[in-house]
Amino acid sequence: MNPATLTELISYSRRHNTGIGMFNIVNLEFAQGIFDASQETGLPVMFGIPERFTQFYSIDCMAGVCKKMIEGAKAPAAIHLDHGKSFEGVMAALRAGFSSVMFDGSSLEYEENVKQTAEIVKIARAFGVSVEGELGYVGRVGTDEPGPESFTRPDQAVDFVRRTGVDALAIAIGNQHGQYKGVPKLDFERLKAIREKVDCGLVLHGGSGIANEDFVETIRCGINKINIYTAMDVAVKDFTRKSFENYGSYLDCFAKGTYPGPLGRY
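^ thats the sequence. predicted structure below, dont judge the formating
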């Protein structure tokens, strides 16, 4: 099987009334666990590689690992650049064979976001790759706390999608990156208004810590893709802190039966 595009997975989301999970990869163990969970459930998945993570590993090597796993996949899987902030980062992902890229111009002035995103879409189309853009400002818990004035505006979303041609749009409706201090209050009415006005896929960043019932409601209101990382980071960190001293070697830590999840199989 070849890597799926984001467009293909959005189509799956709509046909099956479900959200597609994108999980960011730190290392091989993360990638294997994410892949195994997809195979067990038979559900599509997206391997997420944020541009900032590529300072820790080779983007080409990690893409190669993901592509090798996908060859034998029973369910569709995509390789996605998460939060591509630079032209160079996006080009590196395209050259590495990613099937989907995100260009995050949310910190730019609106017109510059439109201009740069549209240029990325034009180039990615030549590679047969889907593009996710971002409008509004999601922010990070404890660092910057955006209010409703920073949320995605439905009318502006229409203009942004029309002028850029993005396949999916990451929106801000009260969601944030990082570990929430409580259960976030999402603006479902805003989400429904955006969904009514644009036809592209809609993406919810900051999925870790959102209540299960809110996940269901966001999908019902039009979300197609949900990003997860912090929950995995916290789980692995807690496990390592509590249990690592009990193992004789690093490899023993990931031996079959030791880790409480898919990572423990290898």
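The two ends are 23 Å apart (CA to CA).
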